[in-house]
Protein backbone atom coordinates (compact mmCIF):
# COMPACT_ATOMS: atom_id res chain seq x y z
CA UNK A 1 0.00 0.00 0.00
CA UNK A 2 1.34 3.49 -0.86
CA UNK A 3 2.14 6.02 1.84
CA UNK A 4 -0.62 8.29 0.57
CA UNK A 5 -3.25 5.55 0.84
CA UNK A 6 -2.05 4.61 4.33
CA UNK A 7 -2.22 8.26 5.42
CA UNK A 8 -5.72 8.66 3.96
CA UNK A 9 -6.79 5.58 5.90
CA UNK A 10 -5.09 6.83 9.12
CA UNK A 11 -6.58 10.33 8.83
CA UNK A 12 -10.00 9.40 7.48
CA UNK A 13 -9.30 11.45 4.34
CA UNK A 14 -8.77 14.70 6.28
CA UNK A 15 -5.86 17.03 6.88
CA UNK A 16 -4.25 15.73 10.08
CA UNK A 17 -3.69 19.29 11.27
CA UNK A 18 -6.83 21.20 10.30
CA UNK A 19 -9.41 18.56 9.38
CA UNK A 20 -10.13 19.97 5.89
CA UNK A 21 -10.84 17.46 3.15
CA UNK A 22 -9.77 19.30 -0.03
CA UNK A 23 -6.38 19.69 -1.71
CA UNK A 24 -4.50 17.20 0.50
CA UNK A 25 -0.88 16.23 0.03
CA UNK A 26 1.64 13.99 1.74
CA UNK A 27 4.18 15.99 3.75
CA UNK A 28 7.37 14.17 4.74
CA UNK A 29 8.88 15.49 7.95
CA UNK A 30 12.60 16.22 7.64
CA UNK A 31 15.10 15.13 8.66
CA UNK A 32 13.93 11.59 8.02
CA UNK A 33 14.96 8.79 10.33
CA UNK A 34 13.36 5.70 8.75
CA UNK A 35 10.94 7.21 6.24
CA UNK A 36 7.44 6.02 5.48
CA UNK A 37 4.15 6.65 7.20
CA UNK A 38 5.79 7.15 10.61
CA UNK A 39 7.52 10.28 9.29
CA UNK A 40 4.74 11.73 7.14
CA UNK A 41 1.41 13.46 7.57
CA UNK A 42 -1.53 14.19 5.28
CA UNK A 43 -2.04 17.95 5.22
CA UNK A 44 -3.68 20.63 3.13
CA UNK A 45 -1.53 22.23 0.45
CA UNK A 46 -2.11 25.64 2.07
CA UNK A 47 -0.63 24.54 5.40
CA UNK A 48 2.28 22.72 3.74
CA UNK A 49 3.12 25.89 1.79
CA UNK A 50 3.19 27.83 5.06
CA UNK A 51 5.34 25.20 6.78
CA UNK A 52 7.87 25.42 3.96
CA UNK A 53 7.69 29.23 3.58
CA UNK A 54 7.55 30.83 7.05
CA UNK A 55 7.28 34.35 5.63
CA UNK A 56 3.81 33.52 4.20
CA UNK A 57 2.35 32.37 7.53
CA UNK A 58 -1.23 33.33 8.33
CA UNK A 59 -1.53 32.93 12.10
CA UNK A 60 -5.31 32.44 11.90
CA UNK A 61 -4.91 29.23 9.87
CA UNK A 62 -2.90 27.67 12.70
CA UNK A 63 -5.60 27.77 15.37
CA UNK A 64 -6.06 24.11 14.47
CA UNK A 65 -2.91 23.34 16.51
CA UNK A 66 -5.01 23.46 19.69
CA UNK A 67 -6.46 20.12 18.59
CA UNK A 68 -3.73 18.57 16.44
CA UNK A 69 -1.12 18.79 19.20
CA UNK A 70 -3.06 16.05 21.00
CA UNK A 71 -2.99 13.64 18.06
CA UNK A 72 -2.10 10.03 18.84
CA UNK A 73 0.28 10.06 15.84
CA UNK A 74 3.84 11.23 16.49
CA UNK A 75 4.39 12.93 13.10
CA UNK A 76 1.35 15.15 13.70
CA UNK A 77 2.67 15.99 17.19
CA UNK A 78 6.12 16.88 15.78
CA UNK A 79 4.69 19.25 13.15
CA UNK A 80 2.38 20.76 15.77
CA UNK A 81 5.34 21.33 18.12
CA UNK A 82 7.37 22.96 15.32
CA UNK A 83 4.56 25.29 14.32
CA UNK A 84 3.74 26.23 17.92
CA UNK A 85 7.43 27.05 18.37
CA UNK A 86 7.45 29.15 15.21
CA UNK A 87 4.37 31.00 16.44
CA UNK A 88 5.92 31.47 19.88
CA UNK A 89 2.95 29.89 21.67
CA UNK A 90 4.69 28.92 24.93
CA UNK A 91 1.41 28.24 26.72
CA UNK A 92 0.49 25.34 24.41
CA UNK A 93 4.10 24.14 24.11
CA UNK A 94 4.27 23.72 27.89
CA UNK A 95 1.23 21.44 27.72
CA UNK A 96 2.80 19.14 25.13
CA UNK A 97 4.93 16.15 26.03
CA UNK A 98 7.41 14.52 23.66
CA UNK A 99 10.00 12.02 24.91
CA UNK A 100 13.67 12.96 24.50
CA UNK A 101 14.24 11.35 21.07
CA UNK A 102 10.99 12.71 19.64
CA UNK A 103 11.71 16.20 20.98
CA UNK A 104 15.18 16.06 19.38
CA UNK A 105 13.51 15.17 16.06
CA UNK A 106 11.06 18.08 16.46
CA UNK A 107 13.92 20.46 17.24
CA UNK A 108 16.06 19.25 14.30
CA UNK A 109 14.43 21.87 12.08
CA UNK A 110 15.77 24.66 14.30
CA UNK A 111 12.30 25.76 15.37
CA UNK A 112 12.14 26.93 18.95
CA UNK A 113 15.76 28.09 19.15
CA UNK A 114 16.55 31.67 20.07
CA UNK A 115 17.54 33.65 16.98
CA UNK A 116 21.00 34.49 18.34
CA UNK A 117 21.66 30.76 18.98
CA UNK A 118 20.43 29.61 15.58
CA UNK A 119 23.03 28.47 13.07
CA UNK A 120 22.00 29.81 9.67
CA UNK A 121 23.35 28.12 6.56
CA UNK A 122 23.63 30.27 3.42
CA UNK A 123 24.65 29.32 -0.10
CA UNK A 124 27.18 31.25 -2.21
CA UNK A 125 24.50 33.86 -3.04
CA UNK A 126 23.40 34.34 0.58
CA UNK A 127 20.17 32.34 0.20
CA UNK A 128 19.21 30.52 3.41
CA UNK A 129 19.46 26.72 3.17
CA UNK A 130 17.22 24.28 5.03
CA UNK A 131 17.31 20.53 5.61
CA UNK A 132 15.87 18.79 2.56
CA UNK A 133 16.78 21.53 0.07
CA UNK A 134 18.51 20.80 -3.21
CA UNK A 135 21.72 22.54 -4.25
CA UNK A 136 24.09 22.51 -7.21
CA UNK A 137 27.88 22.61 -6.94
CA UNK A 138 29.42 25.76 -8.43
CA UNK A 139 32.98 24.41 -8.48
CA UNK A 140 34.76 21.04 -8.88
CA UNK A 141 35.46 19.74 -5.36
CA UNK A 142 38.02 17.11 -4.37
CA UNK A 143 36.59 14.80 -1.73
CA UNK A 144 39.04 14.36 1.13
CA UNK A 145 39.97 10.75 1.88
CA UNK A 146 39.03 9.54 -1.58
CA UNK A 147 40.04 9.95 -5.21
CA UNK A 148 36.57 11.22 -6.08
CA UNK A 149 35.99 14.69 -7.55
CA UNK A 150 32.49 16.15 -7.27
CA UNK A 151 32.02 18.01 -10.55
CA UNK A 152 30.68 21.52 -10.99
CA UNK A 153 26.97 21.42 -11.89
CA UNK A 154 26.29 18.27 -9.85
CA UNK A 155 22.89 18.46 -8.14
CA UNK A 156 22.81 17.41 -4.49
CA UNK A 157 19.29 16.66 -3.26
CA UNK A 158 17.87 16.36 0.25
CA UNK A 159 20.80 18.03 2.03
CA UNK A 160 21.31 17.86 5.79
CA UNK A 161 22.65 20.76 7.84
CA UNK A 162 25.44 20.67 10.39
CA UNK A 163 23.74 22.26 13.42
CA UNK A 164 27.06 23.35 14.91
CA UNK A 165 28.77 24.92 11.88
CA UNK A 166 27.03 27.21 9.39
CA UNK A 167 29.63 26.47 6.70
CA UNK A 168 28.97 22.72 6.41
CA UNK A 169 26.17 20.70 4.84
CA UNK A 170 25.97 17.00 4.02
CA UNK A 171 24.68 15.43 0.85
CA UNK A 172 25.01 12.40 -1.41
CA UNK A 173 27.15 12.63 -4.53
CA UNK A 174 27.61 9.51 -6.66
CA UNK A 175 26.10 7.37 -3.89
CA UNK A 176 28.55 8.64 -1.26
CA UNK A 177 27.64 11.00 1.60
CA UNK A 178 30.07 13.91 1.73
CA UNK A 179 30.47 17.15 3.66
CA UNK A 180 30.26 20.21 1.43
CA UNK A 181 31.24 23.78 2.27
CA UNK A 182 28.28 26.11 1.69
CA UNK A 183 30.31 28.71 -0.24
CA UNK A 184 30.60 26.19 -3.10
CA UNK A 185 26.87 25.55 -3.57
CA UNK A 186 23.88 27.38 -4.98
CA UNK A 187 20.30 26.55 -3.97
CA UNK A 188 18.18 25.17 -6.80
Walk me through what this model shows.
It is a single chain. Helices cover 26% and strands 21% of the residues. It has six helices and twelve strands. The strands form five sheets. A three-stranded antiparallel β-sheet has the order 8-5-12, with no helix packed on it. A hairpin with a 6-residue loop joins strand 9 and strand 10 (168-173). Helix 4 (74-87) packs across helix 6. It is elongated. The model has no long low-confidence stretch (mean pLDDT 89).
Instruction: Give the DSSP E fraction (strand runs of 2 or more residues).
Output: 15-25%
- The whole-angstrom Rg is 18 Å
Output the structural class.
alpha+beta
Globular, elongated, flat, extended or rod-shaped: what is the shape? elongated
The amount of helix comes to 25-40%
In total, the number of strands is 12
* Measured distance between first and last alpha carbons: 32 Å
Which whole number gives the mean pLDDT? 89
**What series of H and E elements makes up the topology?**
HEEHHHHHEEEEEEEEEE
The number of distinct helices, counting runs of at least 4 residues, comes to 6
Which sheet architecture does the biggest sheet show? 3 strands, antiparallel
Low-confidence stretches: none
List the strand order in the largest sheet: 8-5-12
Amino acid sequence: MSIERELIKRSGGKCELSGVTEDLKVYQILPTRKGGIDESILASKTLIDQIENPETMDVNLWRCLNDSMWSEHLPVQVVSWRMLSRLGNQELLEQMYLDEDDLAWAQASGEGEEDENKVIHRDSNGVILATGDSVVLIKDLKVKGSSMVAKQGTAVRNIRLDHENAEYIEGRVDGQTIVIITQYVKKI
